[in-house]
SWIM-type domain-containing protein
Amino acid sequence: MQMTVERISYLHESEIDIFMNTIKHALQPGIDTEALEVRRAVTLIRNGSVGPYRFDTSDDAVLVTLLGVESEHVRLSFDRIATNCTCGSDTWCSHRLAVVFHLYSQFHSLTDWLHEWRRTDAQKMMLSISERTPKAWINVLSRLTLPLRSISLTENPGVFIHESSLIDQKVVPLSPFEWEWKPLFELYYRLHILDAGWTYVSGHLGGDTKSFFHGKWYVQNWLVEQLDKLRDSVTAIGAKPKLFEADAFHEHIKDLVRTFSLHNSELFDERFSVYRLFWQHLFPMDAAWNDELAILANEKSEEAHIFIAFFSLLQGKHDQLSKLVDNVSADNVATWLPLAHLAESYEETETLAIIMKALLPFIGDYLKQDVPLANRPFFVRDIDGLLEAADFSEEARESMFAYYGESGVDVYADFLVERERFTEWAALMHRYGVSYEEAEEGGLKVALSTEPTAVMPLLHTYAMHFIKEKNRHSYRRAVKLFKKMKIGSKKSGKTDFWNQYIDAVREKNRRLRALMEEMEKGNLNL
Ligand SMILES: [Zn+2]
């Protein structure tokens, strides 16, 4: 028979307590798969998927249906304190947990229970962290941050953020009491949580940048926040004299940073920024750099080459860099660009020139294959800026515009206007059918006041276009253009040419009476 969940919970309070106790000891929050089942169970309850309840009086048992993509049926026997589920799992699956939790939550706080369940694990961690060695710290922090690793990409960002903030709370009592150790512990913690969350974060933010979903913003914020906190603790440590006992901890950081930066994928810019943060602020000495370089030499990835090239930049070793850029290809342009930007920001012109020279043959292909259409104009401007900063010749910069095509029109237009090459500028506007509004925002005004004859044919095209629209408003716009052309003609001493031209326009369109009126008002002859 049907029975409400409140009534069942009321009638079997003590049996439910036994179930809850069994769960408490059977499952451990530190074990990935078990913590995941608990989280899933909580989600099932939150989504209202548990129920309806049917009571089987013959066996003192309830039958509960869990609605979902694949509905399951759970049988809970109060007589025998036993459970069954149609999902086929022989241990505590999320469905069975959901039913027990649901019953328990009728008269108790499930949140409190979960908190308590997680705390027992935290106490175990406290004991192991009391030993002050890098290994003990790494061991505990790896376990603490483990739940973040198991969050599936399909899971809502809210779940990820929630799990991360739970871990944030759990780490507080683990932190050392002595203030001088706190920043170092915080640093270890941030590196661990960043590494643990990376698969989820990079899965959402990396790769196809066009994809958008509403939770992306949360994930982005999380990443920015972690990187900020990491930077803060590096600054806090860098500013203080080192404790003698901390030496071993500092040595281990190098491995942690290298592993995080090199052995994760996607979002290279961010990983590279973490790597630089440590090597520039925490270990800014040549000797340490050389040790690191020896280790990097054994790494095969192109990203490792960038890290080596980064030290070449810091140490001013241009010949080492020249060898490294041999590996540049269309596939790794994106990997090399962050280093180019870094060289630009340091005004290391020679380094930047070496990198850009190597990148140049692949820029065109990379643009077409990998840069999303919407980002291309920005990309072209960026590359042209880097070439300029690297002291490339004007000819070399200009020759690149042929590869950029339409994506580069804006930048090329600016390039031509800056050099007062208005005839070519006008030809570019023609060729790509740039609208009058865009041309006006670009170089039209400067061209008209400097070299009006260069843009006459272009203005003519626009004016004819307006006339074709055949309405009073567009006629006025055409006449406005004619006025500009008139001033330009006067300035360049082409009075006769102008009068012939405007008469011809009038003659050709004399049947458009509204246009004739507007032209009359415009007083267009010279
Ligand atoms: Zn199940």
About this structure: The CA atoms of residues 14 and 74 lie 19 Å apart. The chain is about 70% helix and 5% strand. The pocket of zinc ion is lined by residues 72, 85, 87, 89, 93, 95-96 (CB under 6 Å). The longest strand covers residues 50-56.
